[in-house]
């Protein structure tokens, strides 16, 4: 059987998504959210992980610890003590007591806490993260350092395991800029959000229709992002992730019909955008917003999400425009939509029932 290039395009999309299908919600690969709170001579390190995204042996330890198994909890805390190093003004901070925060029914995550003693007030902090050695090469850490008058973000990958923060510098614009960067990183690694957006754009209609779709999605997720990040309205993670997967399948399925199920597609974009906003908020709820400059940090993160989204749209629209009204357009829409639909259905079953 001969497969055309549009068929290969569809299967390539499916293969790309399938390789990340077991990742946490919106991340390509597994992710941990860390926060480091500096208080005088001590530093509290807090790490949130999701069992479903990690290697089986680690995932099993996390599930046992979440269920109250003491030895499993101690093994995980020892991993942090061994693989995370803090150095304050040239002095190695000593890892001390640790604990596991009580689990809640709204989230599948596990949060571990380890206290470090730095032997003096920390002004220049160096953080080394080697958790990749245990949690896998596709793991990365996003986090936040919070000290008096100073807030900054950091990101660790297997290729970039160390960062330095000068805690005597005021947060100011730099703190807001760090949340801006965090928002950009979050949306660009949020492949399921981007897959939903691609499903909307591939058959978006004219330029006015596309503008309405993008604007509706932006407004909707901005509202629920703020509500959830400020703990005004929150939804269970499993529900949010399942509905996000359902939204991917819905827009892809709608692309396959000659007449859309909902005549105003911007309305579909707005309704599902509300749910995607709860998904975007997960990183802020785990990393935490600073007590000072809370609104600026929230604005910076949301602006970062919008900038990342605008970059993706700017790259996608020329391709959509080139295909418009050509003989290839129906084939590309059909192939891409079938692949996106399959991914959405698989994700929905995985997130809702497994």
What does this structure look like?
The chain is an alpha+beta fold. The chain folds into two domains: 5-24 and 189-353, no CATH class; 30-172, no CATH class. It is built from eleven helices and ten strands. The protein has helices at residues 5-19, 56-66, 70-83, 132-135, 172-188, 191-202, 207-229, 237-255, 265-287, 294-323, 329-353; strands spanning 30-39, 42-49, 84-88, 91-92, 94-100, 110-117, 124-129, 139-147, 150-156, 162-166. It has a six-stranded mixed β-sheet, sandwiched between helices. Strands 4-3-7-10 form a four-stranded antiparallel β-sheet. Strand 8 (139-147) and strand 9 form a beta hairpin. Helix 7 (207-229) runs parallel beside helix 9 and helix 8 packs antiparallel against helix 9. The longest helix has 30 residues, at 294-323. It starts with a helix and ends with a helix. 45% of the residues are buried. Residues 1-28 have low confidence and may be disordered.
Secondary-structure map:
Layout lengths: L4 H15 L10 E10 L2 E8 L6 H11 L3 H14 E5 L2 E2 L1 E7 L9 E8 L6 E6 L2 H4 L3 E9 L2 E7 L5 E5 L5 H17 L2 H12 L4 H23 L7 H19 L9 H23 L6 H30 L5 H25 L1
Parallel strand pairs: 1-8
Antiparallel strand pairs: 1-2, 2-6, 3-4, 3-7, 5-6, 7-10, 8-9
How many strand segments?
10
Low-confidence stretches: 1-28
Instruction: Name the strands of the widest sheet in spatial order.
Output: 5-6-2-1-8-9
Span between N and C termini? 35 Å
Backbone shape = elongated
Oligomer: single chain
> In the residues, how many domains can be counted?
2
